[in-house]
Design goal:
alpha/beta; 7-stranded mixed β-sheet; 25 strands; 34% helix; binds 1,6-di-O-phosphono-alpha-D-glucopyranose
C-alpha cells in the first residue's frame, strides 16, 4: 500500500561540491531523507519508464536509507531499481554500472572521505544517465523542490533482504539485486594489461593497498589479490565498516598516517596506495616518496601510451583550477587540449561526453578518465602499477625524471577549518573586492602579476560558473582561494599554493612554499579575521 505523508521543508538541503553531505544525526531527522528523495523524484518526468542504481560505501545509516529509497521509488512508480548486493558499490563502479546498463541515474549513499558512524557524516551523490553527478541546473531544480515540499509518497511494504542476488518487486517496481563488481572489473580488464600486471605482482614486487575500511576493500581483494595474484594481505583494512573502524577515510598524508609511516620506514614496500570511503580518491606512495595528486595526473598523462586502452591516442586533459599547472605542461608538449574547470568532478562530464578530454584530475586526490564519469581510485592505482611494470623504475625515479623534463610545481593545500560561515563569506567577499588593487604589489620575493575570480564558461552547455579567486605572481606561482563545498562543520577556507621551479627539484614542499604560504595568509587576512595563525590541515 502506498501512503502519502504530510511534511514540511527543511531549508538546508542544497547540494555541495558532490551531492548532499550532512551530519548523520541531521540526515536521521524525521522526514529529512524522505523529503530529499521525493524532491529528486519530483524533478524527473516519466518515472514509470526510469531505472536507477542504488548502493553506497557501507557507512552508518546506508542500510536504512536504501530501504527508504526502495519504498519511495516504488510509491513514485519508478520502473526498476538495481540495488548493489548488501548495498555496497563504489562511486566509480556505480558510474560504470549506470553507463554499461544505460540506466537513468543512481543514488550513491556516501559522504565520500568524510568520517562515518552515528556521529559522523552521511551523504547522497545523485547521478544522472551521464554516469556523472547531476549538473548545477539539476541540483538547483531539486533544491527548489526541497523548499516547497509538502508531502511525500512511500510504500509500507516490508524491508527487502539485500544479501541475495535476484529479482524482486516492491509495489509495481522491479528490484534487481546485482553483483556490484562484475561490470567494473571487466572494464578494468579491458583498459589495462592484466597479464603484465600479474607478472609484476607475482614477481616479489612489494605492494600494499589501504582500503581504509571503505567500500574498495572487496574490489581491491578481487582485483589485486585474486585476479592479479598479489599475496594475501596486500589489501589492508579490507572490510567495509559502518564507521570506517573509527578512521577518517581520506587518503592523504594526515589521515592515512599508518600507511605513510610504513612507506617512510626501513621496511617500506616498493609501492603503496590508499582509496577513500567510496573509492573515488587515491593516494600514491613509493618507498620514502609521496606523489602529489597534481603531479600524479601529469605523470599518468605523460605515460598514456603504455596503457592498451589509450595507446592509439587520447583527447585532451582537464584539471580543476585549484590543481597545479603540472598537467598543462604535459598537454602542451603532447599537443592535446587543456581545460581548467571549477572544483567538482561534475564539471568534467560535459568535456568527456563531447570527447574534448580523456583524462582529468584534481588536487583533492582525484584522478580519472572517460571510461566512467567519476574519479576512480583503483583505476589510478592500476595505471601507476602499469607505469612501474613498463618502466621498471621506482616511483621516485619516475617522478624525478618527470620533473627533470617538465620542471616541478611545488604544491600544498592549506585548510582553515571550522570558520563561522559569515566570517568565511566576509573574508572571500572582501578579498574579491581587493583583487583589482593587488596587481603589481610585492610580498617579499613575490610580485603579483594579476588577480581575478575564477570564472568557467562551459564550452558545451554554455553555462558560466564562478568558483574561487586566483592570484598570479610574476614567477609563475599561483594562490587559489575558495570555500569547501563538502564539509559539515562550519566553513573551511582552502588555500592552494603553487610554485614552479626548474631546479631544486627534490626539496621539501613545506620549505619551498614556506614564504608563499605566509604571503597567502597576508593576502587573505585570514589571521586577522579568524584568529588562526596557521592552517588546521596541510595536504
Ligand atoms: C568531492 C568532489 C571533488 C572535489 C572534492 C573537494 O570529492 O567530487 O570534485 O575536489 O570534493 O571539494 P571541496 O574542496 O569543495 O571540499 P569527494 O571525493 O568528496 O566526492
Amino acid at each position: 500500500m502506498i501512503e502519502t505523508i504530510a511534511t514540511k521543508p527543511y531549508t538546508d538541503q542544497k547540494m555541495g561540491t558532490a551531492g548532499l553531505r550532512k551530519k548523520t544525526q541531521i540526515a536521521m531527522l524525521p522526514h529529512y531523507l524522505e523529503n530529499f528523495l521525493q524532491s529528486i523524484f519530483n524533478t524527473i518526468p516519466n518515472l514509470e519508464t526510469k531505472s536507477f542504481l542504488v548502493g553506497g560505501d557501507g557507512r552508518y545509516y546506508n542500510k536504512t536509507a536504501i530501504q527508504k529509497i526502495i519504498k519511495i521509488a516504488a510509491a513514485n512508480k519508478v520502473k526498476k531499481l538495481y540495488i548493489a548486493q548488501d548495498g555496497l558499490v563504489s562511486t566509480p563502479a556505480g558510474s560504470c554500472i549506470i553507463l554499461k546498463n544505460k540506466l537513468d541515474g543512481g543514488l550513491i549513499l556516501t559522504a565520500s572521505h568524510n568520517p562515518g558512524g552515528e556521529n559522523g557524516d552521511f551523504g547522497i551523490k545523485y547521478s544522472t544517465s551521464t554516469g556523472g553527478q547531476c549538473q548545477p541546473q539539476e541540483s538547483q531544480a531539486i533544491l527548489e523542490q526541497t523548499l516547497k515540499i509538502s508531502e511525500y509518497k512511500i510504500s509500507n511494504s516490508p524491508d527487502l533482504d539485500l544479501s541475495q542476488i535476484g529479482i524482486f518487486r516492491c509495489e509495481e517496481t522491479e528490484i534487481e539485486i546485482i553483483n556490484p563488481f562484475r561490470d567494473y572489473i571487466e572494464m578494468m580488464q579491458r583498459i589495462f594489461d592484466f597479464a603484465q600486471l600479474r607478472t609484476l605482482l607475482t614477481s616479489g614486487f612489494r605492494f600494499v593497498f589501504d582500503a581504509m575500511n571503505g567500500v574498495t576493500g572487496p574490489y581491491a581483494k578481487k582485483i589485486f589479490e585474486e585476479i592479479l595474484g598479489a599475496p594475501q594481505g596486500t589489501v589492508l583494512n579490507a572490510i567495509p565498516k559502518e564507521d570506517f573502524g573509527g578512521l577518517h577515510p581520506d587518503p592523504n598524508l594526515i589521515y592515512a598516517k599508518t600507511l605513510v609511516d610504513l612507506m617512510y620506514s626501513d621496511s617500506a614496500p616498493d609501492f603503496a596506495a590508499a582509496n577513500d570511503g567510496d573509492g573515488d580518491r587515491n593516494m600514491i606512495l613509493g618507498s620514502h616518496f609521496f606523489v602529489c595528486p597534481s603531479d600524479s595526473l601529469a605523470i599518468l598523462t605523460d605515460n598514456y601510451k603504455i596503457i592498451p586502452a589509450y595507446k592509439n591516442g587520447i583527447y585532451g586533459v582537464a584539471k580543476s583550477a585549484a590543481t597545479s599547472m603540472a598537467v598543462k605542461r604535459v598537454a602542451d608538449t603532447l599537443k592535446i587540449g587543456f581545460y581548467e574547470v571549477p572544483t567538482g568532478w561534475k564539471y568534467f562530464v560535459n568535456l568527456m561526453d563531447s570527447q574534448r578530454i580523456s583524462f582529468c584530475g584534481e588536487e583533492s586526490f582525484g584522478t580519472g578518465a572517460s571510461h566512467i564519469r567519476e574519479k576512480d581510485g583503483i583505476w589510478a592505482v592500476l595505471f601507476w602499477l602499469s607505469v612501474i611494470a613498463n618502466t621498471h623504475k621506482t616511483v621516485k625515479q619516475i617522478a624525478l625524471e618527470h620533473w627533470q623534463k617538465y620542471g616541478r610545481s611545488y604544491f600544498l593545500r592549506n585548510d582553515f577549518e571550522g570558520i563561522e560561515q559569515n566570517i568565511a563569506d566576509k573574508l572571500m567577499s572582501e578579498l574579491e573586492a581587493r583583487l583589482p588593487q593587488l596587481s603589481g604589489k610585492q610580498y617579499g620575493n613575490f610580485t603579483i602579476s594579476n588577480a581575478h575570480p575564477f570564472i568557467y564558461n562551459d564550452p558545451v552547455d554554455k553555462t558560466s560558473t564562478q568558483n574561487g579567486l586566483i592570484v598570479h605572481f610574476t614567477d609563475g606561482s599561483r594562490i587559489v582561494y575558495r570555500l569547501s563545498g563538502t564539509g559539515t562543520n562550519g566553513a573551511t577556507l582552502r588555500t592552494y599554493i603553487e610554485r614552479y621551479v626548474t631546479q631544486d627539484l627534490d626539496e621539501d614542499p613545506n620549505e619551498m612554499l614556506k614564504e608563499l604560504s605566509a604571503v597567502s595568509r597576508a593576502i587573505s587576512n585570514v589571521t586577522h579575521l579568524t584568529g588562526k595563525e596557521q592552517p588546521d590541515i596541510i595536504t
